[in-house]
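Worked Example 4.2. Consider the chain below.
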Amino acid sequence: MIVRRKAGRRMESLRFARQFLRHPRQLGTIAQSGRVLAQKMAEEIGARSQVVEFGAGTGPVTREILKRLPAEGHLTCFEINADFCRYLKQIGDSRLRVVNDDAKNCEQYVDDPDCVISELPLTLFSKPAKEKILAIAKKCGTYIQLQYTPVLSKEIKHYFPDVKLRFVLRNLPPAFVYVCRCSDAVKTA
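Applying the procedure from the previous section yields the following structure tokens:
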């Protein structure tokens, strides 16, 4: 069983690396999120039940979210890479919906999520695209963003009054996780 899981993770890693070589600006890194990073990100959803994931890739964070999501919860993953979407659909969880579209179009598919988890490489996005993603995330109240540098702090703090930056050393490459929250009063503004 352990051998099969390790082989599966290796295949996911190869699939991810192959897609990185084809679309480097779309993925932002050659390696998918590691298990520890995925767990740290998913832990932040708490008791939320309407979760949206931007840039799910091959699904390491997706699987960790599903482990924590209540039975009546829903996870909607946005992924623009069609190969990754086919792979994500194989997870086979009725709470999971995979959308092959840009995260900027989230509001066309999901009403009132209570949490957004993003693995999008925002530092590579144009300013309007980055602002659109952050504006969508602000509406939900809880936003968890993976980045490999802390350069987005000022921009994220513009949208969220409560921002915690966590550093995850046990990942290749090491990563920063922004955990952002805003109150209902700020959320509806």
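The beta strands are 50-54, 74-78, 96-99, 115-118, 142-147, 162-168, 175-181. The CA atoms of residues 25 and 125 lie 9 Å apart. Compare this with Example 4.1 before moving on.
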